[in-house]
Amino acid sequence: MLNYYMDLCNKSRDKSWENIANDWKEISHRPHKEAVTNFRIKTRHDCLAEHLKRICILTNSLCPICKTDTMNREHLLTFSRDLTPYYNLKVIFA
Question: What would the pLDDT profile of 67-83 be if each residue is shown by its tens digit?
């Protein structure tokens, strides 16, 4: 296991996603869907608008919901945190 970890560290060095080596143990013990989602978001190989623009699928990287900011990992975390109280109230009072 140590060799695999060292190999992962060496291959990911100087990549935009090299920090995954530090989080690998935490991610690998989660349910498959959750682990894959965490891995894709941490490595920035996700289906968020910023990545889809980078691979020429979208023409802009704006958030499709608020249309004010680039839809990336940071925006997703901020936006979902701001949206949660509203969503909870909507579910309670709907």
Answer: 788 888 788 777 766 66
